[in-house]
Amino acid sequence: MTKTVGVIGGMGPAATCDLMEKIVALTKAASDQEHLHMIADVNTAIPDRTAAILHGGPDPVPEMVKSARRLVSAGAEILVMPCNTAHYFYDDIAAAVRVPVLHMARETAAALRAAGIETAGVLATDGTVQSGVYERALAEAGVRAVYPGPAMQREVMRLIYEGVKARTAPLASIPAGDILADVRAQGAETVLLACTELPIAFRELGLSEGCLDPTRVLAFAAVKAAGAETTAPDPW
What we know:
By secondary structure, the protein is α/β, with parallel strands linked by helices. It has helices at 13-26, 49-55, 61-73, 90-96, 104-114, 126-131, 133-140, 150-165, 176-184, 198-205, 214-225; strands at residues 5-9, 38-42, 78-80, 119-123, 144-146, 190-193, 211-212. Helices cover 47% and strands 11% of the residues.
């Protein structure tokens, strides 16, 4: 008997759909009935996580807790959050519910360690970068993190907020290739697309090769935690 997966969504909506599609793709199933039962709360009222961490913006925890509890009340037995920056608040969410909450950064760090990666580039929001969400998880796994320089970090933020969230800037107008070159020049053996909008952007741009997608890592972990068989041997 598999477990029901609850998705604390809306951070952003496209990233929520991306995670759920990856859970479906990674679940070995011969029929509708063999797929996992998923419940999503696409709560777009959750305030921006980077604004909260760096600029004193509204606290996102109350809305995230509200979503988590709604999902558990609806029958979720495992929770996932398709937002890397939201994991800065992980302890608050995990403490608010009685079911396991998977940790995207820790699962990603474990995948890197298993693959023998020693240095990883981290592309993420300013909030994720400056709060150390990945820095800590990677350090615990013995992986060195490198980040884009200031100019390229601004382009990462444009890619996330203007390219995917708002769709106000054409993705091709943002130098994603230069961002990758920046961290690879610092010794990155692979590049983490550590904001859930970034796998969407890099897939559309055809630049995903040599990158690890934490959304896919989280999807893989969710399938395993729910007790289903995966279609791939690892999250790569």
